[in-house]
Amino acid sequence: MSQVSIARRVGLLGTLPRLGPRGPVSRRRIGRSLLVIGALWVGAGLLSATDAQALQAFGLGLAFPGGGFSLCGGLGSQIDTTALGIGGAVAAAFGLAMFLWFATGNLMAPPLVWLASAIGAAAYAVTHGCLSAESAWLPALGLASGIALAGLGFSYRRPYAVPPAPIPPAKRWHATPAAPEPALPPDLSDSDLARLRFLLDRALQPLARFDGFERLDPFQSAALRYQLQFAGYALAMVQRHRLPALGAYLTQAQVNLIEKARDHRVWRYWALESLWGRGRPDPNPFSSDNVMYTGFCGAQIALFQAASGDRRYRVPGAFSLRHPSGAVFEADLPALAGRLARQHQASPFGLIACEPNWLFPVCNSLSYLALAAQDAQAGTGVWQGMAERQRALLLDEFRDASGRFVTCRSRLTGFAMPPIGGVLTQLLPSFFLNATLPDVARENWSRLRGDLLHADGRARLDRLWPIDVGNYRFTRIAGLCGAAATAVEMGDGEVAAAMLDALEVGHPMRIVGGVGHRPHASIWSHAFEIMARCGRSDGLHDLALHPAAPDTAPHIASCPYPAAMVAKAVARDGGLDMVLVRSGGRDPVSIGLGGLRPSRAYRRSDNCSIFMSAPDGTARLDLTLEARQRIAIREAV
User: Fold this and answer.
1) Do residues 329 and 318 make contact, with C-beta atoms less than 8 angstroms apart?
2) pTM of the model
């Protein structure tokens, strides 16, 4: 009789603890891992039953890293402190190797340390002898433990059908229907412009420079590539929802961020990860198991093109990478999307690994976003053809007992990691999945939003991880900003307001030279705050699935940043509404316009003067700006 049948008969369904994941792929991998460990312990028990001290030490070293030295050092009437010290050092080294496996994908480190410690213990037994060779309980313990693990492994390989706990109806959250995007988005405030400058200053510097970016590690969440990509997502959201008729520096900033991602310093980490995680000396970051570059870059490029109407990365080879050896790795957005689709389809889990071996739902939600946005721009149906399989595998293989997403799962062993990153890593899939699997996104948000608010509507800071995942500093800013952006995307104004209020109270913004920043906050955090403040309900969904056409409407084509900034740019009634803000000084500035009707007379609302557009639909305005100046451009009658 199955566990489900038994539970139903005794009335325990819903309270029965879920013994591992429901997904068949995960359970088979976990079962295989337990069988291997069980066989290892059985072998260790048999070796320790021999009379040879070297084999005893080797067997105990196989059972536990450093265990062979404990046999020689501490099980008899005397104590060999040298052996015990070596055993402790080996255990610490194995812990470090396991950390490196997670943090950098170094799959070779744990088994090498483990095997080397067992061989070292055998050699130590030969040269120094063991103080306790007569411990009869060791073989029995090894055999019993191994058999138990093997049996558990067999049980894991059987199907397991207990579903995740349902969301109680009273606790379900329903977003109000998304309002149509306003024809005239509100002006950016001075504080909005200050926040925006934090990202623009970094993006608009020369391509070879990375001033203002943090270089803490090349592998995990503070890596340079993530700073470039999240800044790009934020600028795309601003362009689509707040400044749709601004090209100029806003388009150039996004292009610069994409081009900076092509710098070898950003993707050279892959040569090491491929070597120690896949056993292949392959420097090509497009090859496989690297969704944290290919998926994130694909989403960055697709969102830029969707926001700007610029399709430059559809050109074959437009995103190619050049290795210092001279090798060129060809890529463009359609090619990236094709690789991602093939890798998803080839994966038994449906997900593509980040560091070789580790499968992260949040990283793959960005890959899905790249595929769907590319489909919307190219008129293809790649994502639609694979969405159902991806949805089923995501829900079956990557949820915990409560139905929430796990942080990540090992492709090799099937085991899931604890929720590193706190609620942030669980809620961000809702932000990115809203464009591709909106039902999954909203159900996940319903499960999580209760963790974010007190009964009186204040933010629950204790449920946010006390570390900024973008720079590893001890602050909850990343959690507040990520939760606020997700709440805005979900149409949950209550949670968004609570998160942003807590952000202002606990981490006030400082403005220096017109640039706003929150001390100790990462670029991740600044980017998510901008997405929260400049986004809208279903904002990322609409950006990805309803891309802007190549721009033929009136728009601002050039603007001298930062001497002048644009707080409003909207094409309307065949003309252009804009608000320009002077950033310093009163020197005249020159604003370039594009998308006008060729060789036509246009009138400026600020001084009623008339100017002519050029035969190519461009024009130039020379202005002496007030602090904040509103100008409407209309065709003169």
Assistant:
1) no
2) 0.89
Please report the beta strands in 257-395, taking only residues with DSSP state E, as ranges in sequence order.
321-322, 328-329, 358-359
What HEC string does 548-583 produce?
CCCCCCCEEEECCCCCEEEEEEEEECCEEEEEEEEC
Q: Where are the beta strands (DSSP E) in 279-429?
A: 321-322, 328-329, 358-359, 409-410
- Region label for 248, one of left (φ > 0), alpha (ψ between -120 and 50) or beta (otherwise): left
527 neighbors 484 (Cβ within 8 angstroms): no
How confident is the model over 103-113, as pLDDT tens digits? Answer: 888 888 888 99
Determine what percent of the chain is predicted with pLDDT higher than 70: 87
Task: Kindly give the interhelix angle for 248-260 and 291-308, rounded to the nearest 10 degrees.
Answer: 160
Q: Dihedral, CA atoms, 63, 69, 70, 74, nearest 10 degrees?
A: 160
Q: List phi, psi (to 5°) of 565.
A: -125, 155
CATH 2.60.40 segments of the chain: 555-635
Q: How high is the pLDDT of residue 10?
A: 34
Q: How many other CB atoms are found less than 10 A from the CB of residue 159?
A: 9
| Alpha-carbon gap, residue 129 to 314, rounded angstroms | 68
User: Cβ neighbours of residue 346 under 8 Å, at least 6 residues apart?
Assistant: none
CATH of 555-635, one of 3.30.70, 2.60.40, 1.10.1760, 1.10.20: 2.60.40
What does the pLDDT look like over 496-531, one tens digit per residue? 999 999 999 999 999 999 999 999 999 999 999 999
Cα(632)–Cα(106) distance, integer angstroms: 58
Instruction: Give CATH 1.50.10.20 domain extents, the chain.
Output: 187-214+222-545
Residue 16 confidence (pLDDT): 35
Instruction: Assess contact for 377 and 337: CB atoms under 8 A.
Output: no
In sequence order, the 6+-apart residues with CB closer than 8 A to the CB of 467 are: 473, 474, 475, 478
187-214+222-545: CATH number: 1.50.10.20
Please spell the DSSP secondary structure of 105-159, one letter per residue. Answer: --TTHHHHHHHHHHHHHHHHHHHH--S----THHHHHHHHHHHHHHHHHHHHTS-
Distance CA 415, CA 160 (A): 16
